[in-house]
Automatic annotation (TrEMBL):
A GO MF label: hydrolase activity
Protein name (Swiss-Prot/TrEMBL): Alpha/beta hydrolase fold protein
Keywords recorded for this protein, A-Z: Hydrolase
Segments forming domain AB hydrolase-1: 27-237
Domain of life from the UniProt record: Bacteria
Length: 260
């Protein structure tokens, strides 16, 4: 079945979305800087029939619109929360890729009763690599490890968003301090890292999971940064298992344990 598509007004912006039906806790996927739901839609399609899932375009990216001002992580988180309320999606698992991890972490802290759990795929930005030269070097290194089809779709997304918004979103990711947010995330959180991801190196991924009060780290060997496009089936399996596990514990009144 082809994913359903729609657009909702959110304040002065709009948010486009793609959706597949399913049973169980809802999952909402949020893309990274300068890109769109093209990079997360493969996971949504892989979740079809297992759990209801959405891929969204944040305001100003993909098929969404936004006022012409610099995006901020907190502003994007507020837009995401407003969209969840418009759609009536209750306590979803929010899956973020790259910059999307920062957006969903902020959303979880800003509205803890409205977010059930998180999946952080390739969390950014590594506090040890915030300089522009280092970030550029890591982006180029990752580009040599991504599949050509992923590179093509990322370039198309960058072109659609425009240079100014691309740069602004990358700067927003760089300036946001996710390491100060993670300790305040109370929801069960799964941290995913590609084994060949230069933007989320192993020491930073371990530190991100450690900072989370209820964080679990899973590494996908051999995978680059864009996990949702590079390994959608594996990511969907991990997410599906995670949301079932957290839902089962919640029904039983048990505390979800990050240790497996």
């Amino acid at each position: 079945m082809e994913a359903l598509r729609g657009t909702d007004g959110v304040g002065r912006a709009s948010m486009a979305w793609w959706h597949v039906p399913g049973q169980g806790p809802p999952v909402v996927c949020v893309h990274g800087a300068g890109i769109s739901s093209r990079q997360t839609l493969p996971v949504v399609r892989a979740l079809e029939g297992r759990t209801p899932a959405w891929a969204v375009d944040l305001p100003g990216f993909g098929a969404s619109t936004a006022p012409d001002h610099a995006p901020t992580v907190t502003g994007l988180a507020d837009s995401l929360l407003a969209w969840l309320r418009v759609r009536g999606i209750e306590r979803p698992c929010l899956l973020g890729l790259s910059l999307g991890t920062q957006v969903v972490a902020e959303a979880a802290v800003r509205a803890p009763d409205e977010v059930g759990s998180l999946v952080l795929a390739g969390p950014t930005t590594d506090p040890g690599a915030r300089s522009l030269p280092e970030l550029a070097a890591r982006l180029l290194r990752d580009a040599t490890r991504e599949d050509l089809s992923v590179i093509r779709s990322v370039v198309a997304d960058y072109w659609d968003a425009g240079v100014r918004r691309d740069v602004r979103s990358l700067l927003a990711s760089r300036e946001h301090r996710i390491e100060t947010v993670l300790p305040r995330v109370g929801q069960p959180t799964l941290v995913l890292r590609g084994g060949r991801d230069p933007l989320c190196p192993a020491p930073w991924a371990r530190e991100a999971a450690r900072l989370l009060p209820r964080g679990r780290l899973v590494t996908l060997p051999g995978q680059p940064h864009a996990l949702t496009a590079a390994a959608p089936g594996r990511v969907a399996d991990l997410v599906g298992e995670f949301v079932r596990e957290t839902a089962r514990d919640r029904r039983a009144g048990a505390e979800w344990s990050p240790n497996v």
